[in-house]
Amino acid sequence: MAKILCVLYPDPVSGYPPSYVRDDIPVITRYADGQTAPTPQQPLGFKPGELIGCVSGALGLQDYMEKKGHEFIVTSDKDGPDSEFEKQLHDTEVVISQPFWPAYLSAERIAKAPKLKLVVTAGVGSDHVDLDAAAKAGITVAEVTNSNSVSVAEHVVMITLAQLRNYLPSHPYFEQGGWNIADCVWRSYDIQGMKFGTIGAGRIGLAVLRRLHPFEMDLHYTQRHRLDATTEQALGLTFHADSGSLVSQMDIANLQVPLYPATRKLIDARMIASMKRGAYLINCARAELVDRDAVVEAVTAGHLAGYAGDVWFPQPAPAGHPWRTMPFNGMTPHISGTSLSAQGRYAAGTLEILQDFFNGRPTRPAYLIVAGGNLAGTGEKSYELR
Ligand code: NDP
Question: Where is this site: Important for catalytic activity (predicted)?
Fold first, then answer.
């Protein structure tokens, strides 16, 4: 029997369970790169399409935990030394957390958790865990690779269109009784023919490029390893050797790289100054990839036409975070990777990882970030330790 600590975002303010607008969701069994969707060995404790990413939903893990006799604590209280999360760490063996409401697992917190063996990110992106400290402590870190990549890609396409077409400011006019066409369209452009470039064309970045290709955009990308020629030709991609070359030429620049020491503040004031006046920046990867205040200054001064995304630091963003009130922002809370569709996949993947862990089976290499004291599996390709 193990103690498992699961940190999830709070329930809806209107209460749980919610009622649902749809009765079913499509079943996705395989991802674009051929990886199979999660295959836990016992029935899921939820119906795909249910809200399981919040505290009362508990990732549908309650049944599994009870049957196995584990102590299963679910909380959203994660910040500060008096938080439930920090109080429970001392004898916890497994932490389950998620990027949307990150339980920051710093080196200090890892030092307070001597029994911790496994950290599961229910989703993709484990930068809220100090991977270096986890490796040194012999902790395994795993995430549910691919589970929400398309969810994020769809969000990127949506906010790109919303920004360029000035959708968000236009929506409230009619609700307020107006018909302000000129007010709506004075910042509205077609994306056809525009240069769109992504820094990072991995699972999400490439899915974005594939989805934007039918819009007849001029598509660009940069990353350390070039994509194969067939993919480049099929999508008409232009490769850039570095981020500087890419952002200086784009109408819309998109960030889709993991956060690790070398990518922190990749987009700083100098990089933003090199962008075209009126360019847009899209970031559904991680907030700390950009210089927060440089973005505010550039958007406020009109150098950037807008900034959109769903990732903040810290999360939840404090009331005074300048992006909350920045002009021409297309921000949301961190939601792109936690649609109901995505929740079903990352919850199933979390169950698969737990079952393998408790049954002494190896974790799928695609899910591994840190194992055996070093980066492993997907982690070897995605991150660098300090
Ligand atoms: P992948 O690992 O599949 O893709 C990341 C890409 O970034 C790789 O193709 C890699 O290529 C490239 N890359 C890495 N380092 C650099 C660098 N220094 N310079 C240029 N390119 C680089 O990751 P995903 O697409 O699955 O996810 C990307 C990120 O998106 C995640 O790490 C996470 O932070 C975020 N995310 C956000 C979500 C949300 O809800 N908003 C949900 C899921 C993920 P190469 O190695 O060739 O450089």
Answer: 286, 334
Q: How many domains does the chain have?
A: 2
pLDDT reading at 212 higher than 80: yes
Residue with the two structure tokens 């004291």: 373
Do both 239 and 324 map to the same domain?
Answer: yes
Among protein residues, the one with the nearest Cα to ligand 1's atom 26 is 203
Is 235 marked within a binding site? no
In a domain? residue 383: no
Q: What is the pLDDT of residue 240?
A: 98
* Residues spanned by the domain of 222: 149-331
Q: What atom of ligand 1 comes closest to residue 310's alpha carbon? A: 41
Q: HEC profile for 76-131? A: CCCCCCCCHHHHHHHHCCEEEECCCCCCCECHHHHHCCCCCCEEEECCCCCCCECH
162 and 252 part of one domain:
yes
Do 158 and 255 lie in a common domain?
yes
Q: In this structure, is residue 381 part of a structural domain?
A: no
Pairing of strands 304-309, 329-331: parallel
Q: Check residue 41 and give its pLDDT.
A: 85
Same domain, 361 and 349: yes
In a domain, residue 291? The reply is yes
Atom of ligand 1 nearest to the CA of 207: 25
* Annotated binding-site residue? 337: yes
Yes or no: say if 48 and 25 are a contact pair by the CB < 8 Å rule. Answer: yes
The pocket around ligand 1, CB under 6 angstroms, is made up of 123-125, 148-149, 152, 199-205, 222-225, 256-259, 262-263, 284-286, 310-311, 334, 336-337, 381-382
Same domain, 56 and 175: no
Does residue 36 contact residue 29 with C-beta atoms inside 8 Å?
A: yes
User: Mind listing the pLDDT tens digit for each residue in 57-83?
Assistant: 999 999 899 899 999 999 999 999 999
Across the range 141-156, mean pLDDT stands at 98
Q: Is 106 annotated as a binding residue?
A: no
**Mutational test site, ligand 1, from 246, 257, 312, 315, max ligand atoms within 8 Å of CB:** 257
Closest CA to 361 of 142, 86, 136: 142
